[in-house]
Design goal:
The chain is α+β, with helices and mostly antiparallel strands and about 160 residues long. Helix content is about 30%, strand content about 20%. The chain contains three helices and four strands; from the N terminus they run ααβαβββ. The chain starts with a helix and ends in a 26-residue tail after the last strand.
Length: about 160
């Protein structure tokens, strides 16, 4: 009984501290699972474009193999593209090395084009761009991705 009284003041501090640590551990910000946006049909893809504020007309589609990120020789535009997909919570990197279909849309009244990349019937990547050889990666609102939004590993 003397031992309990001797350490009771420590228990009053230790028990809430342990409780706080457990709560903090359980509430750690978990990465949200990537979106599973259906993109099997033209209707699916056009409807998604409308949710982004665009009306688009399909220009072309082609089969592609979704590339891996090359950490040995990173291309800045490709790294921007990977980061954009992460910001949009699309599962691009989960599908590296798989077959996909790249759909290109002309966006009405904007001069922009959109590329929607699908695999296994879902949208895995999306970007806007102005036509041209060195067009930069734009988000789905047509805004450039500032370099300061890229993590150090992408710079």
């Amino acid at each position: 009984m003397i031992v309990i009284k001797k350490y009771s003041k420590y228990l009053l501090i230790l028990i809430p501290a342990v409780f706080c640590v457990i709560v903090l551990f359980l509430n750690q910000k978990q990465k949200a699972p990537a979106q599973q946006i259906r993109a099997v049909t033209e209707f699916d893809r056009s409807a998604w474009l409308l949710t982004q504020g665009w009306q688009g007309k399909l220009q072309s589609s082609r089969a592609v193999v979704i590339p891996y990120a090359d950490s040995e020789n990173p291309d800045q535009n490709y790294q921007n593209y990977i980061q954009l997909q992460a910001q949009q919570n699309l599962p691009f990197t989960d599908y590296a090395g798989t077959n996909g279909i790249l759909y290109t849309y002309a966006l009405k009244d904007s001069g922009l084009y959109a590329e929607l990349l699908t695999a296994d019937g879902i949208l895995v990547g999306a970007q806007c761009y102005y036509p041209g050889a060195d067009s930069e990666t734009l988000d789905m609102q047509g805004n450039p991705i500032p370099d300061n939004q890229l993590p150090e590993s992408f710079k």
